[in-house]
Prior knowledge:
10 strands; single chain
Amino acid sequence: MTQSFKRAWLGLGGNIGDVERAMAQALQSLNAHPAVVVELVSPIYKTPPWGVEDQPWFLNCCAQIKTSLSPEEVLELCQDAERQGKRQRNVRWGPRTIDIDIVAFEDCEQIEQRLTIPHPRATERAFVMVPLAEIAPHLIIAGKSAKQWLSQLDDDGIEMDSSDRSWWS
């Protein structure tokens, strides 16, 4: 039996501690799983806080993976990586060491209590669309490409922190 591989796009970020290291460790952990290959990783972007604005700036990136896992299994792996990164969920949109969201998953649209794909607010967030458009400009989410969504967003204040795409490996 052959395994069916699909692509998924993840958004990673954080603003407490060594965020770059936490994101790199999370990506390495995902890539070490036998059913996951990290194919592309965006540069790191420094972004202003969103939601709760009285907190440190964030570092954000996006990654494209190839996997034979279900979206729910990928969510479990992402949450395991968050726990390894000492993620604590204290305040919604508040400070965190690491956050990993499934932004989109090939051939999958679902609205469930635990997991909605595509991510319900990704297209409203420049801190997601800037790095996503860097690695997958033609990815269609809710009828528009990542590049088209980005063109409708205010990306003021977002700046590339590092252009090195191998920063995580």
